[in-house]
Amino acid sequence: MSAAGVLVERINALSRKEKALLAACLLAVVAFAAARWVVMPARAEYARNRAAIPARRAVIARYEAFRLGQDRVDEELSDQVERMKKWEDGLLAGETTSAAGVFLQGLLKPLTQRPEIRVTSIRSLPPARKGAYTEVAVQMEIQTSTEGLALLLADLSRQTKILRVRKLSASTGGSMGQVPRKEVVAVSMVV
Fold first, then answer.
1. Domain final position from 36, 58, 86
2. pTM of the predicted protein model
3. Are residues 9 and 59 in the same domain?
4. Domains contained in the chain, number
5. Average pLDDT per 10 consecutive residues for the chain, totaling 191 residues
């Protein structure tokens, strides 16, 4: 006889109470195995997921805040682009620094065409690199009155292009004892 046949014969030989006890024990072993390998891992997974919910909510809230912030960043970037375009419109035109220098001299010429202003010399200075841009300057020497100088500086500040006077020196030709009726100021300026 085989081992299975011997086992079946022994079970048949048991009394009714012993068979019930054996069935209860086998059922307990199956229940323990099911609990150990099915129910407990599922419960642990449920507990891990439940514990992870606040962290996931925080991540979702952070992404939502980032998305809302991204809209604000996009709007701010758009504003910055508009400002940059406006500022670049204020820069001198010209593909090269010499062309920009000629353009600058062309801007300054009409400002110095007043009868009280006499240009004695104007010359281009070497360009200076300023980050992504190059600064172009001219040195201009003029003779004018203080009112003429004030008008010239006011006209420079009203230009649509970004112009600044980097260096300005003025001197009068009069001596200490003389009071001239109309003073003449020799001005050297770097624009």
1. 86
2. 0.51
3. yes
4. 2
5. 84 89 93 90 90 91 84 85 80 78 84 85 84 83 86 84 82 61 66 61
